[in-house]
Amino acid sequence: MQRIVMQPIIESKNVSISYGQNEVLKDISFKIVKGDFIGIAGPNGAGKTTLIKAILGLIPVSIGSIDILGNKIGRFNNWSKIGYLPQKSSTINALFPATVDEIVVLGLLSQKKLPKRITKNDQIKVANILNDLGISNLKNKMLSELSGGQQQKVLLARALISNPEILIFDEPSTALDPNSRESFFKLVQKLNKENGISIILITHDTGYIGSYANKLMYLDHELKYFGEISGFCLSDKDNHSFERSGQHIIWHQHN
Amino acid sequence: MDILNFLQYSFIQKAFFAGSFVAIVCSVLGLFLVLRKMSLIGDGLSHVSFGAIALGLFFGIYPFYIAVPVVMIASILILKISEKAKVYGDSAIGIISAVGIAGGVILASVSSGFNVDLFSYLFGSILAISNTEVILSIVLSLVVLAVIYLFYWDLFSATFDEEYAKTTGIRTNFINMILTLLTAITVVLSVKMVGIMLVSALLILPAATALQFAKGFKMAMAIGSIVSLISVLLGITLSFFLDLPTGAIIVMINALFFALAFFYKKLS
């Protein structure tokens, strides 16, 4: 029987990233294929955020290369295919007088050429995505007046409005209460399973990785583990070095 | 003298006309600067305009013609120093601002005869605005507004979250450069109206007032523009009838609007 080899949507080849003399990531290689739900875990300062910023083209790669959807990162320009949800706490300026629809529509700018104008069709897309996420009632509200969970859904709507193939999250659940966290991860899983969107997600809620992701990337400056969650459970050689977060993932996988 | 006679003076008409355009430009641009915590760049660039105007007077060239390019170059220098050197943005503003003032003082001391002209720019003199300055103010204001219109969504996105804006393909370094150059032009335009010492107030106060009320970005722009426009028109009128310095009156009315907005919000 012929084996189908899936083309990677993201491929990292021997990537190293340094800030001055400080090497944050060393020789990172992996392939992410369509439909993957990758949970990225690792201790603080392990280089998790640096890696996703490199994938997003926000940080230059010192050595090696990253390909996205078949293009070298430096030449990639189809940014509407990638949705990004940054750490909420770093994004919301309490003074900023933006309404929800003004923020969500920013996700469409990658598809536009100068002079960028918001059309009626764009407004319909905003209304539709807010409706899909169950937050239509927030359309004209000020972002700064919403709860942490509502703000997170608005930023998710911004990431989803361009119909991305890949969604990248940087600690999306930091500002959420336990109930909101559970429903947020369920929503992300639904986007992955039903809409076929590939997910890359950094979280310190490592238990959720075991419950929702299909693959784990464990970083500690180097790539300690990348593969199926079940493989991580069975792998003994590095388990002793994965500290509490690793044990937490395994614990959830077995429960 | 009644208000109708007052409006018949051509210098009042010119001041109203040029002042209205500059007021709107300042409030619109100021909103982006305030939200990006860049509002003091207006202060720094106004100090550079002091040196640039002194340079113009020294060489006998119309000061505006020198000030616009010199202040634009200074604005790029501020951006580059904060990007390339190990210096924060506020320090870069401080460096360029000090050089501007120092240059102006040196030129004033080595020349004789233009000190009076130079000091008129310190506190503004919109009632003495020339036809050339009116035309320049209107043309440059329209240029600034047109560029803001062209890049509105890129400016908005980069102001809300610069990192996210980059992930949507927006060249944020280019947008920052545009914002800084527009600020340079606007500062030079405002110098004639309120003077070097008070330019930053014209950029900051209408935006700060609007932020007390606004329920959306475009609403903030509209409120800021209305506040700025009323302050300028009322300021010119009051300064004429009360024989008070126009620039200072405009700034005080702006400050009054801010105080009223602040207390209204606190009480409600």
Characterization of the model:
The complex is a heterodimer of chains A (255) and B (268). Chain A is α/β, with parallel strands linked by helices and 255 residues long. Helices cover 32% and strands 25% of the residues of chain A. Chain A has helices at residues 48-55, 100-104, 120-132, 148-160, 178-195, 206-212, 229-234, 243-253, and strands spanning 8-19, 22-33, 37-41, 63-68, 71-72, 82-85, 166-170, 198-202, 215-220, 222-228. In chain A, strands 6-7-8-3-9-10 form a 6-stranded mixed β-sheet, with helices on both faces. A 4-stranded antiparallel β-sheet of chain A has the order 2-1-4-5, covered by helices on one side. The radius of gyration of chain A is 19 Å and the shape is globular. In chain A, 45% of the residues are buried. Chain B has helices at 3-7, 10-35, 40-59, 63-84, 89-110, 115-123, 131-150, 152-160, 162-167, 172-194, 199-213, 217-242, 246-267. The longest helix of chain B has 26 residues, at 10-35. The interface between A and B is medium-sized, with 31 and 29 residues.
Number of helices of chain B: 13
Helix content bin of chain B? over 70%
Structure class of chain B? mainly alpha
Q: What fraction of residues of chain A sit in β-strands?
A: 25-35%
Shape of chain B: globular
* Count of individual beta strands of chain A: 10
Strand order of the largest sheet of chain A: 6-7-8-3-9-10
User: Most extensive interface, residues per chain?
Assistant: A-B, 31 and 29 residues
Separate helix tally of chain A: 8
Mean pLDDT of chain A: 85
Structural class estimated from helices and strands of chain A:
alpha/beta
Low-confidence stretches of chain A: none
3D shape of chain A: globular
